[in-house]
């Protein structure tokens, strides 16, 4: 039975390359045409493959519907949480997870610092969109026309002398973030707080969330926090792999 399932599943990546006839499927699987036909008929009955009028087979609409449903039901917070906790246990600093929804960047998870000085951020609270590192990553991934339109609509409060002053500077920062693949907030929202962040990507490569490590100057300097960037990026990559299905979930 396991061999039959393996053969049936092997047909799907073949058809992802384009329509194929019975002979091509049999050849790829290394089986007789009658065996290949039985497998194709079973997949056809479940809507996973479709037989065209020219007798070639292609991927069925049901397969795409299942994929879409699976993506819609993915909970990036649930997948990311264990990774965020491990990162926090390693570095000791506050770890955030954020997403972009309806023109706001929201924290959807937080693991508190082990140090006495804590951040006042809260799950469900919007971030300071023009300065926050997670916001820069999420907005940098937008198409250029959307980035420009959004930048022109935003206000640019000067929380500190290091805050982003205007749309042109913001767009320049987003372009830099988009190119380098990570972001920082070094005293842009609160002079005493620094942050480094990395993107979490879906199967299509688009940024679905962003995670960050933040710490006050009294605990670590900005330069010391920046040394954690490789660890932050590895954590984000691990979450991305699990979220997109490229790597198996680690045991909880």
From TrEMBL:
Q: Which InterPro entries match?
A: GAF-like_dom_sf (IPR029016), HTH_MetabolicPath_Reg (IPR050707), Tscrpt_reg_IclR_C (IPR014757), Tscrpt_reg_IclR_N (IPR005471), WH-like_DNA-bd_sf (IPR036388), WH_DNA-bd_sf (IPR036390)
Record's Gene3D superfamilies?
Answer: 3.30.450.40, Winged helix-like DNA-binding domain superfamily/Winged helix DNA-binding domain
- GO terms of biological process kind: glycerol metabolic process; negative regulation of DNA-templated transcription
Name the Gene Ontology molecular function terms of this record: DNA binding; DNA-binding transcription factor activity
Alphabetical UniProt keywords: Activator, DNA-binding, Glycerol metabolism, Transcription, Transcription regulation
- The reply to whether Iron figures as a keyword in the UniProt entry is no
The name this protein goes by in its record: Glycerol operon regulatory protein
Which organism is this protein's natural source?
Streptomyces sp. R17
């Amino acid at each position: 039975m396991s061999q039959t399932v393996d053969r049936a599943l092997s047909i799907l990546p073949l058809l992802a390359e384009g329509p194929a006839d019975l002979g091509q499927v049999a050849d790829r699987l290394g089986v007789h045409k009658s065996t290949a036909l039985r497998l194709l008929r079973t997949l056809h009955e479940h809507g996973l493959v479709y037989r065209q009028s020219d007798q070639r087979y292609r991927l069925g609409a049901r397969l795409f519907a299942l994929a879409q449903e699976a993506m819609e039901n993915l909970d990036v917070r649930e997948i990311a949480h264990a990774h965020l906790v491990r990162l926090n246990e390693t570095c000791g600093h506050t770890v955030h997870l954020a997403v972009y929804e309806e023109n706001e960047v929201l924290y959807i998870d937080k693991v508190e610092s082990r140090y006495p000085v804590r951040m006042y951020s809260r799950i469900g609270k919007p971030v300071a969109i023009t300065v926050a590192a997670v916001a820069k990553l999420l907005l940098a991934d937008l198409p250029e026309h959307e980035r420009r339109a959004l930048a022109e609509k935003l206000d640019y409060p000067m929380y500190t002398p290091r805050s982003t002053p205007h749309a042109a500077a913001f767009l320049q920062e987003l372009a830099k973030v988009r190119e380098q693949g990570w972001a920082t907030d070094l005293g842009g929202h609160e002079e005493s707080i620094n942050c480094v962040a990395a993107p979490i990507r879906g199967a299509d490569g688009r940024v679905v969330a962003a995670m960050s490590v933040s710490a006050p100057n009294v605990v670590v300097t900005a330069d010391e926090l920046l040394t954690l960037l490789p660890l932050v990026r590895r954590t984000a990559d691990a979450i991305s792999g699990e979220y997109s299905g490229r790597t198996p979930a680690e045991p909880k």
